[in-house]
Write a structure and sequence with these properties.
By secondary structure, the chain is of the alpha/beta class. The protein folds into 2 domains: about 90 residues, no CATH class; about 350 residues, Alkaline Phosphatase, subunit A (3-Layer(aba) Sandwich), CATH 3.40.720. The chain contains 13 helices and 17 strands. The longest helix has 25 residues. The radius of gyration is 24 Å and the shape is globular.
Length: about 475
């Protein structure tokens, strides 16, 4: 060992020795976050968030934003004056217009337009706020998902759920504070949609399975008793604690916390997945026992059970709504899978008194173009739509959100926004506000700079608030 290396080691050790309890503070912060002792910036309307992520970009034109004017342009290209600056992923600006084949009707006191794909959502129209004026700078999937969940087009930043867990902690002792439930194909954003980025890994989303062990290998191997498992973890904790005291690495504190949480989960998880105490009416309402709703219905019911047990953030992913072709078939199929469970979740939360404290969000990373994409020119019925981040729809319900209204307006072709544009950062700022967090104050210092979910932009959308 040379003199320079020796001095570096001594300096590091002296720092941790003299850091006024810094190592203990790191470990304590992990414990406090897990126990939900972090404080909101101001009184919150919502305690939990369930984000139903419809990966791929659902078509707002065929679900939420009817445009009769498109009938006049059906099969024809739009004028150059409209399309000249348009960025498209696959089609050319000269592509022919595709008018929606769906039938719309108005639901609820606010007369929210929903297509015939979503009759069950219509039954809870008075509980939701539909935003028709979302926009994003990203027109491809992975960048769009990074923007939606981490507020940037760059990989490596914390996700929305991680920021919320970092800011508020979890109320659950026996389950992760941020849980991810998946249905359908994998999302193109993958783990970046629920990663903790540069935050300690204890704030990452934990993917659950909907049957068997929620996490693989959670159960003890045959012949390993609870007492043996406890003794093994105690020894491992002591070794990790010694290493933590030497290095000050916050990830070691996260590792200790993860092992302890896993031990507690071995008792809590089987009860979580046991639907035997749910009434037959509840299971039927969600569609748990029938095809094609079974998988997503199970995840929606699990989401309700998770927030009941103090889990702060639940992400439900359903892929893929990326209908470049066979739009009619694809949209019908996915709505048949999700419409009933989504409406049931809203109803169930409300009847249990949980909707007022649970923020529910539904949407994708962008929308779809009014022009068609035809990958099978000989089959006009196979038409789809390309990516359209300039103007698309999402909806919200629950804690802090003003129910039964439409916010934002697009033009007659659903091409551009005419009223109340809502950027992705505005959405993020508003969701954090409902949870009692100021998006400008929720920061984390990394590499000498304070970072936040909304980067340097974002405004709370007051029209969305109750």
């Amino acid at each position: 060992m040379n003199e320079q290396t020796f001095r570096q080691i001594q300096t590091r050790r002296r720092f941790f020795r003299d850091a006024a309890g810094g190592i203990g503070t790191i470990a304590l912060a992990q414990v406090l976050a897990q126990e939900g002792r972090a404080a909101p910036h101001f009184p919150a309307k919502a305690k939990n968030i369930i984000f139903m992520f419809m990966e791929g970009g659902p078509s707002q034109l065929d679900l939420f934003d009817p445009k009769p004017e498109l009938e006049k342009w059906d099969g024809k290209p739009l004028p150059d004056s409209i399309t000249k600056n348009l960025q498209l992923a696959f089609i050319k600006p000269t592509a022919a217009v595709l008018a929606s084949r769906r039938q719309f009707r108005k639901y609820g006191q606010a007369g929210i337009d929903l297509s015939d794909c979503l009759p069950q959502l219509g039954s809870v129209a008075d509980e939701i706020t539909l935003v028709r004026s979302m926009h994003s700078p990203a027109f491809n999937h992975h960048p769009g998902q990074l923007m939606l969940f981490s507020g940037t087009l760059q990989v490596g930043r914390p996700s929305l759920g991680s920021w919320v867990l970092y800011g508020l902690g979890s109320e659950s002792q026996n389950l992760p504070g941020f849980v991810v439930l998946s249905a359908g194909a994998a999302t193109s954003g993958g783990e970046s949609n629920f990663s903790s980025g540069f935050l300690p890994s204890t704030y990452s989303g934990t993917p659950f399975r909907s049957s068997g062990d929620p996490i693989l290998y959670l159960s003890n191997p045959a012949g390993v008793s609870k007492e043996t498992q406890r003794a093994t973890l105690d020894a491992l904790r002591d070794l990790n604690q010694q290493h933590l005291e030497k290095t000050g690495d916050a990830e070691i504190a996260s590792r200790i916390n993860s092992y302890e949480l896993a031990f507690r989960m071995q008792m809590a998880a089987p009860e979580l997945l046991d639907f035997s105490k749910e009434t037959p009416a509840t299971l039927e309402m969600y569609g748990v026992d029938k095809f094609p709703t079974r998988t997503f219905a199970t995840n929606c019911l699990l989401a309700r059970r998770l927030v009941e047990r103090g889990v702060r953030c639940v992400m439900l992913t359903h892929a893929s709504w990326d209908d470049h072709t066979d739009l009619e078939k694809g949209l019908t199929k996915r709505c048949q899978m999700t419409d009933q469970p989504v409406a049931a979740l809203i109803k169930d939360l409300k009847q249990r008194g949980l909707l007022d404290e649970t923020l529910v969000v539904w949407g994708g990373e962008f929308g779809r173009t009014p022009m068609s994409e035809l990958r099978k020119p000989s089959d006009l019925s196979s038409a789809g739509r390309d990516h359209h981040p300039v103007a698309f729809s999402m909806w919200m319900a629950g804690g802090g959100i003003k129910a039964g209204q439409i916010v934002g307006k697009t033009d007659d072709l659903c091409f551009n926004i005419e009223e109340d544009p809502v950027h992705i950062h505005d959405l993020q700022a508003t969701l954090l506000y409902c949870l009692g967090l100021d998006h400008k104050r929720l920061t984390y210092n990394y590499m000498g700079r304070d970072f936040r979910l909304t980067d340097v932009e974002g405004n709370v959308v007051k029209k969305l608030l109750a």
